[in-house]
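Consider the tokenized backbone below.
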């Protein structure tokens, strides 16, 4: 079927070139007709293939369907399937007594490590929130963490930060860090 379409398209191309050379509109119309015929053949072939692929969904023989209607289907044994191993959630690792306690490294009190717990949320008064909405000052966020910080925040340590406007950070759902208190600091600097 595709060979017929190929021949028709090549013939249409040849007739189009002939129409351009001879300046005859008759050859151009014949070329257009052959192109339309090739397109119709492609559509017909597509519909035929589509019907053929949908046909195997019907029962193969009427006798098989009659036999299944007479006797109830026998319960099939569950086929052995490959079981996916899931990684347990952090709280589902078994008996807590078997879990080793995390070790604390020897770090001086001034050193901040990336193992610090997430800082608390800074409480911001309503009046300050209204002032913050108008500010375009920049704060920083850390990917996968819900707080925004000042660049000088000790919790950041060596973490990769993303600079963002404070208004945008609040719109995206980030909350202020209680360690560096960005809301109070920026409102005080604005006033």
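A designed sequence for it:
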């Amino acid at each position: 079927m595709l060979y017929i379409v190929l021949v028709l398209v090549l013939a249409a191309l040849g007739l189009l070139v002939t129409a351009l050379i001879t300046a005859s509109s008759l050859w151009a119309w014949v070329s257009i007709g052959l192109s339309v015929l090739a397109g119709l053949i492609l559509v017909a072939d597509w519909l035929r293939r589509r019907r053929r692929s949908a046909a195997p969904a019907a029962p193969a023989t009427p006798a098989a369907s009659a036999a299944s209607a007479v006797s109830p289907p026998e319960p099939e044994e569950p086929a052995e399937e490959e079981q996916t191993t899931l990684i347990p959630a952090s709280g589902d690792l078994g008996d807590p007594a078997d879990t080793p306690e995390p070790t604390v490294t020897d770090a001086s009190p001034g050193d901040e490590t990336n193992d610090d717990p997430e800082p608390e949320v800074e409480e911001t008064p309503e009046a300050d929130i209204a002032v913050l909405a108008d500010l375009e000052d920049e704060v920083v966020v850390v990917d996968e963490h819900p707080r925004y910080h000042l660049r000088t925040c000790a919790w950041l340590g060596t973490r990769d930060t993303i600079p963002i406007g404070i208004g945008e950070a609040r719109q995206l759902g980030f909350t202020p860090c209680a360690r560096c208190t960005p809301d109070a600091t920026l409102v005080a600097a604005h006033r």
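Strands lie at 138-141, 147-149, 162-165, 175-176.
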